Every structure is written in C-alpha cells, then in structure tokens.
Q: What sequence folds into this?
C-alpha cells in the first residue's frame, strides 16, 4: 500500500467557533500550514494558545466584525 509523502499538506480541520471569532489570529508556518491562535490566551491562561479544532463551545467567543464582500475564505475561517 502506498504511503503518502510526509510533506503532503493535510487538509485544515474545520475551525468551529474560532473561524468567526474576533480573537482568532491565523499564524502560518514555513511548511505552509496555518494555525489558529487564540489572542485571549495572552491575558487569560484559561484559553489555550492553540485550541484544538473544531472549537464547539467557548465562553470567550465574540463574533468577528463583518468583512467586505469578496474577501474570500478557507477552512480556518479566512
Ligand atoms: S475566544 Fe474561543 S472562539 Fe475565540 S479564538 Fe479563542 S478559543 Fe476560539
């Protein structure tokens, strides 16, 4: 059975609430992956820096302000 190369990009997990949260910041790495960072973690240790996705329930969720039309998007909530 063929084994996929280790460099193959895995599809991003669905972000759940983080994808629409004002406190999410997307952090790309040099390998082409993008991680979902929770900005609340800077001031409140109750929030993980990189929450396990998808986040289905979060007391700190705040809706992100609307973006202009045509802004595009991806599985991490861009
Ligand atoms: S506050 Fe909650 S929903 Fe918002 S980015 Fe952090 S973990 Fe995700």
A:
């Amino acid at each position: 059975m063929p084994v996929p190369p280790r460099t193959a990009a895995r599809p991003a997990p669905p972000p759940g609430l983080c994808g629409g949260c004002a406190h999410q910041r997307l952090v790309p790495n040099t390998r082409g992956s993008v991680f979902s960072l929770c900005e609340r973690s800077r001031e409140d240790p109750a929030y993980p820096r990189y929450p396990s996705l998808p986040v289905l329930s979060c007391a700190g969720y705040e809706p992100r302000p609307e973006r202009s039309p045509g802004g595009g998007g991806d599985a991490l909530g861009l």
